Protein 1
Amino acid sequence: MKVVVGYSGGLDTSVIVPWLKENYHAEVICMTGDVGQRDGLQGLEEKALAGGATEFYGEDLREEFVEDFVWPTLKIGAVYGRKYLLGTAMARPILAKRQVEIAKLVGANALAHGCTGKGNDQVRFELTYAALAPDLRVVAPWREWDLNSREDAVQYARDRNIRLEGIDEAKLYSRDENLWHVSHEGGPLEDPGYEPEESMFLWTLTPELAPDKPESVEISFEAGTPVAVNGKAMGAVQLLQECNEIAARNGVGRADLVENRLVGMKSRGVYETPGGTLLYTAIKDLESITIDRQAEGLKDQMAYRWANMLYEGRWWTPEREALEAMTDVLSRNVTGSVKLKLFKGSCVVTSRTSPVSLYCEDLASFGESTTYDQSDASGFIRLFGLPIRAAAGLGAGGTEVNKEISQLISEFGDTGGL
């Protein structure tokens, strides 16, 4: 067997390499995708080869990750569980896709991952495999081996003289990091009543220690895609990094939630998504002046579907393609700039402008208007309330109400006019 492993260099995947060699007599090739995690690909090739892999592929996927996965999810406005901005879920389909591509390149006949049997990621990886390489065998060691804990994995590695440099054997938290976010799970967080210690957070400054003066930032969009910060045009990766830095130093972007995992259990996670919080706040506000009420409602419905589709690993499906095409249409006028004020963990919109704004000051004004006749509202309300008045006519006073309805009908000639 020749198997390509999705390799992170952490404890689990460091152990998987020799385990595959022992239990499957496999030739193991490791693949790591850089989606913006700390230290990127540094030192991973040496570690993988030392652990028994025959080849290592390190792939810089940052630009593709932001442009093809993060931006579409931002554009549609998808949020899972009311708080989660889907950082881990967005990274899995691109990593699994590249793993499949490497497998085809080297002629492998199997794929392997280090996801546990309790989590969402096993589904996300394997649904990508199913969509892009249904002929390849899938090996999921955590669902097969007799290692039941992190301690077992550490002992397995020591028994085989596997290098664990750079791995914190006593770490409290399971973390995932990319350009969009860093997540914290496990350890003391498994108690939903536990308040996280400040030392747990890696990106964001505690709001209490954030600057005593507010900071303003302006974010510009074209057709729903972020293109500039404070008037400076930037590429996707640079723009997201800039937003992360601005928000993090102001204590913005933390979320603590108990979410419903795909496999059925509830799980607590604490997420740091500083730049994403700015971008979501800005784009939703820009939409308020650039898309109409019905389009906004449709977009909100599609955002819910996208969040579930992405969370459940169904990225490589016609459903996602259709949702993305619809979003592109609904967002084609989401162009303009939004100013935000950041202060000790808060993020507040202070202004929004757009060259294609639907907002008309003359129509909205409480003062004298040249384009709106307030007396027109009387007829609108009479017609808009017609079903309610008809239903009320079935009760007391129905005769008078029905006379009024008949009068309305006669004024319009027939019911088709209503």
Note: The CA atoms of residues 147 and 153 lie 6 Å apart.
Protein 2
Amino acid sequence: MVDVEENIELLRKSGRFSSEEEFLEEAVRALLEKRPELRIELAVEQYKTGSVSLNRAAEIAGYSPEEFKSILSDRNISRDIGFLEDEQRDEYLDGL
């Protein structure tokens, strides 16, 4: 069995990566390039948690905003649309 942490440390020591975080960033980027369906999963989850806008999620997934809306609809994920009351907006912004 491959010891991932040991391999990360060996690659870091080789000078190719300055940190485990740098290694993981490149590994995730490569994984998303190899498995584009995971980009959709990532975009949906980021959108659901509110960490990205619909447009940004669509960009991450590699789709237009209209196509991404359809993906959300197919997954029964509702979108927050409309305007917030002043108090709701202030609470939302404070949470960011």
Note: The two ends are 41 Å apart (CA to CA).
Protein 3
Amino acid sequence: MASANVKQQVHELVDHLPDDATWDDVMYRIAVRRSIEIGLRESEAGQGVDTKTLRKELGLTE
């Protein structure tokens, strides 16, 4: 998220919340958004783990 766009993106995030949203709802949505963006940046930088490796580490069958 480019810092110049943060304010607008937060406005859009809040605009999509229900009218009875709580501060916890707001913070949760921001945290999820941030985690996704961090993951995307790491993936683009080749720092991610592929699905096959992750499934093996978690002991899941393919």
Note: The chain has a mean pLDDT of 90.
Protein 4
Amino acid sequence: MNLLENFDCIVTIVNKGHSGTAVNASRAAGAEGGTILYGRGTGIREMKSILGLAIEPEKEIVLTLVRSDISLRVMEAIVKACNLEKPGSGICFNLPIKGVAGICHLNCPQPE
């Protein structure tokens, strides 16, 4: 099995409609793409209501797999582009990945 090492998964959680900004920023900083998932927020800034009815805020979660050596550069680009230092605009964090398979342009055997 061909496993790649020294990767991080950058997790970015933003309000609905803002995932494209995160993906574009990450690509400009050296990432090759991302996976977008949909969710809902439950944080302290998420509780809103209209006429007494609770609104469940929709979120977009962007998973970006990058080499560890560019992880912080990509995160900084996402934070800046998505204005994540402003309260209520989202969060971004990274997780170390022990092994990666399936990134075929980097390490999979090519068909003959």
Note: The radius of gyration is 16 Å.
